[in-house]
Write a structure and sequence with these properties.
The chain has about 200 residues and is mainly beta. It is built from 1 helix and 16 strands.
């Protein structure tokens, strides 16, 4: 029975992989091919590769037609190889059709190309639009600049960071606060709106 199940899953993956490069490995695997209930569960050193994305976790669950949804839990690590983006989180949900990843729990995203490290309790990364939304205890680090807020939107193509929810930016010994802050991550220029305050040390 186990041999039949494993053989069936390999067949299922081979068919769905025709439209997209998709592979996996793990210590253990179980699942079902029943129509409308397609599911594969990978346990122990689980790893999935889809196009340029690599995901590793203690457990990975793959659901839906053409393996559309991927749910990772337990020491999740990922890499978008083409864009040199890395992330770690407690849990990750990924939609392979929309190319959207949602990170939950203690989460870190590192954009090595732009030399940025960002942390938050919830991160939504839109791979196609190259826009990332951070929520709850957001912190972003770049060179000698530190940004903090409760909500932030990072537009990777434009290299812009919009902060709201008690935002504050520290640049060396300088401090900036406002209702809304925009940071140009290319020039490190700061634009502030609403209840603006700050401290600049010469």
């Amino acid at each position: 029975m186990k041999a039949f199940l494993v053989a069936g899953l390999f067949c299922f993956l081979a068919v769905s992989a025709l439209a997209d490069t998709f592979s996996f490995r793990a210590d253990k695997m179980s699942g079902s091919r029943e129509t409308g209930k397609e599911v594969i569960i990978l346990m122990g050193h689980a790893e999935v590769r889809s196009d340029n994305l690599v995901l590793k976790a203690e457990q990975i669950e793959i659901q839906g037609e053409d393996n559309q949804f991927i749910d990772c839990s337990g020491k999740v690590w990922g890499q978008e190889e083409e864009k040199d983006i890395f992330f770690e989180t407690d849990r990750l949900r990924y939609d392979r059709t929309l190319k959207i990843a949602r990170l939950e729990g203690n989460s870190t995203l590192e954009d090595k190309k732009n030399e940025i490290v960002a942390k938050g309790r919830f991160i939504e990364y839109d791979d196609q639009a190259e826009i990332t939304v951070f929520q709850i205890s957001v912190r972003l680090f770049k060179d000698d600049m530190v940004c903090r807020s409760e909500y932030a939107v990072y537009r990777r193509n434009e290299k812009l960071l919009d902060l709201s929810g008690f935002p504050v930016v520290f640049k060396k010994d300088d401090e900036f606060r406002a209702d809304r802050i925009r940071v140009d991550l290319d020039t490190d220029d700061v634009t502030m709106e609403g209840s603006v305050s700050g401290t600049i040390k010469n």
